[in-house]
Amino acid sequence: MIDGFNLSLPRGTGVATYGYNLALAAQGMGFKVDGLYGLRAPFNPKLREIVFYEALGGEASTKVKRWQFRGMRELSLLVRPKLARALPAPGSGQVEVEQFAYRLPSFDRLFTSPDLFEMAGRHFRRYGLFMHVRVPDPPAIMHWTYPFPIKLDGAKNIYTLHDLVPLRLPFASLDNKRLYYKLMRACIRKGDHICTVSEASRNDILRMFPTNPERVTNTYQAVRFSKAVLETTEQEVEDSVRSIFNLPYKGYFMFFGAVEPKKNVNRLIEAYLSLSLKTPLVIVGARAWGSDAELRLLQKDEIQPLKATFRNIRRIDYLPRPLLMRLVRGAKAVAFPSLYEGFGLPALEAMMLGTPVLTTDTSSLPEVVGDAALTVDPYDVGAIAAGLSALDQQADLRARLSAAGMKQAAKYDMQAYQTRLAGMYEKVLGK
User: Fold this and answer.
1) Is residue 145 within 8 Å of 19, Cβ to Cβ?
2) Cβ(413)–Cβ(407) under 8 Å?
3) In the structure, what pLDDT confidence band is assigned to residue 342 with cuts at 50, 70 and 90?
4) Is 280 exposed, middle or buried, given 0-12, 13-18 or 19+ CB atoms closer than 10 A?
């Protein structure tokens, strides 16, 4: 079983991609895979499926009403910590679910426990205790794709800790650092095993939370694209880039990811502007905390000399994944100058599509991209600018990185990922 917390978000995150690929990998290994969501659904089984997919389809329907007496529910959890139960979400076929195909794996069984993740977070903040949840005929393994203060009874509980960015870059997030530290420590102590996605993250975990190294496994991640992405021809990509975005095919730089401090977008923009390039820069990503500072050079402010007169920079808030991947594939190069990453999936996705990559020499990125990308100091604007200039002017460099990138990305295909997962699951189950 895997959790559906990030999979339920209307606009997927990197962890949602991780969860989706994890489910596909486990099914490909012969496992039956269940999903556990925290969406509200009524006890009436005839309505449960309808309301579940209504909640999955939009944020408004998942808002909690004041009359739900949350305080009483939390108090009951303190008295009976195994009270939370998940309801099966029927799959009768009466609801058309094709809309969710890109973020809803074909689970063998689907359960939901109303407000599970929010309640667990509130419960942990107040009492320092993990919530327990029960399902009928529990699976052998519960693989949490994120560090939630929850345990599934009757299963081995594995927690994926993608990184320790709030502790390594405390200035780059709004997390309550004391609570975050407490939660990480609790997951490591209470979990049957810890999964992570790079050697850099594994070393961080073992250094900050000393434990038996055998209890922490790096499985990396899988890079996988849908048929809609893989079967798209170069001509179709070129046509899409020109007609939808009015951009020249292989004639623009691109960044994609959340616009937040750790992504280092501010230095990327500064480096780009220092070059006066004709090649446009496209930034695709939703604003997150700290985005105003990251985009300060693009702010429209009539009393500031640096107002948004840079027509060569375009920012797009959100794109569906198939369209986003077309834009990545049509780029001259992808710039991903992150300060710190647990894995750095955008860099690897770009490499798999044959797009040259400029990234940084910190955290997990050097081990993930190998020699198949330009790596620079993320704090050195001049180095970022020099990398952009080289990629802009040197066709032979782009060709070399394109070929090397696809070869490097092949190391993270689904088969390799399944092999690493199998080893971890066998260890957890004592086989």
Assistant:
1) yes
2) no
3) very high
4) buried
pLDDT tens for 96-140 read 777 777 778 889 999 998 889 998 998 899 889 999 999 999 999
Separation between Cα atoms, residue 205 and residue 135, nearest integer Å? 30
| Predicted confidence (pLDDT) per residue in 366-406, tens digit | 999 999 999 999 999 999 999 999 999 999 999 999 999 99
Burial class (CB in 10 A: 0-12, 13-18, 19+), 260: buried
Q: Which residue segments constitute the domains of the chain, with CATH numbers given? A: 2-222+414-429 (3.40.50), 227-412 (3.40.50.2000)
DSSP 230-266: HT--HHHHHHHHHHHH---TT--EEEES-BSGGGTHH
Distance CA 227, CA 229 (A): 5
* CA distances (Å), origin 399, targets 358, 361, 391: 14, 21, 10
Q: Check: CB of residue 259 under 8 Å from CB of residue 267.
A: no
Complete edge-to-edge strand list for the sheet that includes strand 131-134: 84-85, 131-134, 150-152
Quote the pLDDT of residue 79: 53
User: Residue 293's pLDDT band (boundaries 50, 70, 90)?
Assistant: low
3-state secondary structure of 74: helix
135: tokens are 């399902």
> DSSP of 138-191, one letter per residue?
--SEEEESS--SEEETTSEEEEE----HHHHSGGG--S-HHHHHHHHHHHHHHS
pLDDT digits (tens, 9 = 90+) for 237-267: 999 999 999 999 999 999 998 888 899 999 9
Burial of 10 (0-12, 13-18, 19+ CB in 10 A): exposed
Contact 105, 27 (CB under 8 A): yes
Find, among 296, 317, 315, the residue nearest to 307 by Cα: 296
Q: How many CA atoms lie within 13 A of 381 on its CB side?
A: 11
Residue 11: strand, helix, or coil: coil
